[in-house]
């Protein structure tokens, strides 16, 4: 309900499509997968090549979504909240747990640069790439506001039974 993704054109950063998760309809409709599904529902004539797109996810993709992004042919993705944020702030340890249990993969140890794609943490980029301190603070402040909104939504949603059971 509040995991989302969007796809932009690399050429002009225009929005191609955005979607959010819908686990109540199907447990596979994570934000990223649902966004990719909608992307492929666009008419082929107007749909850009995945190699010409930027893929952005609100949360670091889980193993399902990592595979979906890979199989779809995107050569990049960016995310705001990391797996640890998802575990700690949203009480959802499943991404890391599945990585460990199924793939024997410790937190953060999957290949963030590989044959298929490179991925980027927005928070790391802000920390490491923005030299102007004021600009960095300003962006950080915006991210803090987004984080606060997510926290508020989480507090509301966790009281709904349907949310509790939309976990694994
Ligand atoms: Zn996922």
From TrEMBL:
CDD domains: nucleoside_deaminase. Pfam families: dCMP_cyt_deam_1. InterPro entries: CMP_dCMP_dom, Cytidine_deaminase-like. Signal peptide: none annotated. The keyword Protein biosynthesis does not apply. GO terms for molecular function: catalytic activity. Residues 122-149 form a coiled coil. It comes from the Eukaryota. Residues 4-79 form the CMP/dCMP-type deaminase domain. Keywords: Coiled coil. The keyword Coiled coil applies. This is CMP/dCMP-type deaminase domain-containing protein. It comes from Acrobeloides nanus.
